Amino acid sequence: VNYDNFETLPGAYAFRLYRNYDGSGSKFGDVSVSAASGDQSQLAIYAAQRSSDSALTLVIINKTGGTLTGDVSLAGFTPAGNTAQVFRYSAANLNAIVQQANQPVTPSSFSASFPANSMTLVVIPGASAFNSGVYLPVVSKSSAISCPG
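RE: above sequence
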């Protein structure tokens, strides 16, 4: 490990996913949202809402050596529109956080696959002004990820 180049280590990309995921200063939300997973040891989820634009931001980490699929329930949160932005750090490119194709979302949920040993940031625009209420994203591999209010 070359500790002279910390910015190229995977841990640096983990911090970037929260603090500057797009290279233009975009950040994970500033108001913590309770999040839970059916199996946090395999498919973990962390969530926060951005007070500046009401977007719900989810970081979903696949800690396994295989692709996992999950359903995300958005109960208690109303998306603006029908797509979310997706950014990912994975073995597909160990030198960058890569923007993926937009993720289709419904007013209540979306389904997605998460590659092995990956970190995925999902940015879902909020339909209304910032709400300091609590949402509860829940993730279950091959099952459900939810955000009930």
